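re: ur question from yesterday

yeah so i grabbed the chain u mentioned. its 687 aa long if i counted rite. heres the sequnce exactly as i have it in my notes:
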Amino acid sequence: YPKPAGTVRVDRSINLLTNGAFDGGLASWQGENYDGAGAAYSVINGEARTTAAAQGTGSGSYQLHTQGFGLKRNYRYQVSFRARAESPRNIQVRLSENQLNPSSAGTYLLQTVALGTTMANYSFNVDFTGGDNPGRLAFLFGNMGNATTFIDDVVIREIAYVGSGDPLVPAVSATNFSGASTGWESEWWGVSSRAVDGSTGNKASGRPGVADNQDLWVSVNIDPDFEVKEVLVAGDKSAPRSLAQFKVEYGTANNTLIDWTNSNTDGSYESFSNFSAYPPANERRFRFWFRPPAGQVVEVADVQLMAVDLKPHRIYTINLDNAGSISPAGTIRYSKNNTDSATYTFNPPAGQQVANVIVDGVSLGAMNSYTFNAISASHTIAVSFTGSAPASSVASSSAPSSITSSVSSSSAPASVLVSQGRPVTASTNFQPAANAVDGVTGSRWESNHGVSPSWLMVDLGSNRALTQVVIDWEVANAANYQIQGSTNGTSWTNLKTVTGGTFGNRTDTHAVSGSYRYVRVYATARSAGNNWGYSIFELKVFAQNAAASSSSASSTPTPALLTPVSANASTALTAASNAIDKDGGTRWESAHAIDPSWISFDLGAAKTLTQIAIDWEAGNAAAYTVQGSNDNANWTTIASRTGGTFGDRTDTLALSGNYRYLRIHGTERSVGNQWGYSIWEVRLTGF
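ran it thru and got these structure tokens back, copy pasting raw so excuse formatting
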């Protein structure tokens, strides 16, 4: 949706990628080497250069990819880029699900491209008909030669809706879960809510010895502004836990939407729209029944309701000074019929005037009110009351919903968004922390359920003079929380304390000040009605244009996120590279019940290390050391931890020393961990 003034706006019709031109170096891109391949990745003169010493055995043996952008069902996408090679060679471009090794069904575009020695333009269209999900774009070089390649101006853009009728959007996420039958697994990996969490990678399972041959159900309450048109079911075919049939009901009378129907897929969505009766628009209550094959218990990957959003247009209000008021406040939704109009009025605090009104990033100056006519898109309206303009300069304005005029810039102090795409960590990750700073409103961070306090922290890279924090909460939000700042990620200063927040989607905007590198949302109590965790669509931190001077400023380089070139492990039930793929849904897992076990990372060259953050999965370490080496043989312990507890957690440890290789050496599993060592993501900072 349209962002406040000064932020980076992702226009899906222009480019889903924020660094397709490599202006930010390789930020948001990752180079990977496998199967004996050896390649180096860099940006030279604004072009991504890939140089290989060994090409490996498969097309994906060395590759450059970016991920996490959202793909929407029934839209046509255009993938374009410019590329050349030092000598003629082939490469492949692949658009897929967000997996290192995507399935055939999860590969949406795979095209071989013959490169010449001069820059040429390449463009391909693909109609995406899968369920809404994060995507990955990869350039594959392996087993196609060693010639150095150069790539620039990579674009993925949404060019047309190719479905029939109104676009359908997912209506179910983890926070819509409302109840379940008995008989479901009580362990975290199979609980009933995982059947409706929006992810086919999380399965809900019946409990053997309790639910054998039993039909089980889960129920959801969805947003009242949805009209359900389709059901997606991702089944499971892995005996002794499988799905044979399903049934869907709606309403308080449990009316039949779909009677018992066979499920034919294993982990991928299957579409059903032949309803026994259509639920009325605004129906909220749905129940899903699941039946196992004879002699088994139920297991299901996911179910989803696809619906018409009856009020898809949203107007977001932002009070830039946290003073005075805007009416109406918060986020208001408007009809898909494009007939709604709305007037927003601005009430300055006593003794002040409206200084500036900014609509969709366009500064309009001082005015008392603003009217949107025939609303046909989403908008953001931001207001500053910090000025003292004379009353005679204050006016009202109105405009159609689509705003294209250019006007003079605001005289308000310049602030810029500094959090988008920055490294982010959280106390727990039911959904990845990176979703909160990816600029995509359809993705979100969610903490583990029922855990207070919980926190989300973003690393701005250096101390910045903060001006504002904006939190786009999902319905499962915080009643009480603090916004905190830190210069070292350890000692925290409270910048803002909030109490009494109410359940439901809301945007909280807070003026803050001070010079800090780390900003944390520290939630201590969930809102009444929130039976889940804490969930944030976007965390936006604003600061003055120029980086603030650190109170401990020196000539020492500013630590930044380091990108390992490869990962290795003592054993690997799932790939070691999963721990550095920037995908919070994949993980490295060691072989079970082996102590010690380790995972190591090659930084490509010696780096001065300052910090490590480890996102452990539930099967984690009670005791481990972090070790450094410059020859990958002789290791020095540079950090350690003992007493770690079972369950998803993030450990952040200070490091020191100059090393090329780093190793996490697990010596003891946590109490309750009957498996191995499992890590979602590892983030290293240094210079």
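noticed a couple things. The longest strand covers residues 454-473. also The CA atoms of residues 100 and 249 lie 37 Å apart.
anyway ttyl
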